[in-house]
Amino acid sequence: MTETTAPAISTSGLSAEPDPTPARRTWAAFRRNPLGIASAVTLVLLILVAICAPLIAPFPEGYGTDTSQPPSAAHWFGTDAIGQDVFAQVVWGTRVSMMVGVSASALAIVIGLLVGVAAAYFRRLDTPLGILVDLSLSLPVLPLMILVAALAGPSVRTLVVVIALFSWPEVARVVRSQALAIVPLPYISAARVVGGSALWIIRKHLLPGVIPVVGVSVVLTTSRAVLSEAGLAFLGLGDPNSWSWGTILHKAQQSGALASAWWTTLFPSLAILVLVVAATLLSVAYNDARNHRR
């Protein structure tokens, strides 16, 4: 009688891999979106142009001899009515426009984050802060921006503060809606039971839960801030001593080049369009990746 032995089963190859973190899942879904990757690359290139502006083109100042020249090998984007190179204006305008957009967006995000989290966590503040947000969203933003910027005087700092003061309510509303879904969760209640202070709970538990939503708001708020800066500068409310995309359009309008020298307005307008479209596509791609379901 022969004995049969069961074959040994190796479990070395059955070790389960750990589930990827939410950040890795988001990145894996995001990099499969070609529009999202292209938009991110475009924004990175614009940031590099803003940082490396002194290495790309000289600062546009003074007067030149080649006035109102169309695009050529010597002047890629042509020249304006006083002979300044439009390519140099667009390059240096990228620096100011991006700086205003990022600074105004950062300030608006901070204000909106504080208001949204406070309204969601402290229920007594929800009603008055909600009324404040609704009132701010119902105001005519552009006329008020023009009024405040005109009263404060044209400068880059004024534009940053004015744009931020009229951009935070949208951020606050998004943050509040996300925070309201987190506050009732069991781990927030457990943190209260063990004696955690409100500030500690907000910093350790509530803020990490709303940061992904803020990531989408950062990009969209920056693009809107750039648009607002361009509009205010086009109306003559920008800093006259610095270049921005809106300032280029304003000076082209003053010189009467809108009809006779199309290149003086085409290229700064394309720069604004490229930034806004790239920011919008990036935010959409990131939001889709963050909510991706396999």
Automatic annotation (TrEMBL):
Region Disordered, residue ranges: 1-21
The keyword Cell membrane belongs to this UniProt entry's keyword annotation: yes
Location of the protein in the cell: Cell membrane
UniProt domain ABC transmembrane type-1: residue ranges: 94-283
Biased composition (Polar residues): 1-14
Primary localisation category: membrane
PROSITE patterns with a match to the protein in the record: ABC_TM1
Keyword annotations of the record: Cell membrane, Membrane, Transmembrane, Transmembrane helix, Transport
Keyword Membrane: yes
GO biological process, one term: transmembrane transport
Pfam family, one: OppC_N
Organism, scientific name: Sinosporangium siamense
Lipid bilayer topology: Multi-pass membrane protein
Protein name (Swiss-Prot/TrEMBL): Peptide ABC transporter permease
UniProt record similarity statement: Belongs to the binding-protein-dependent transport system permease family.
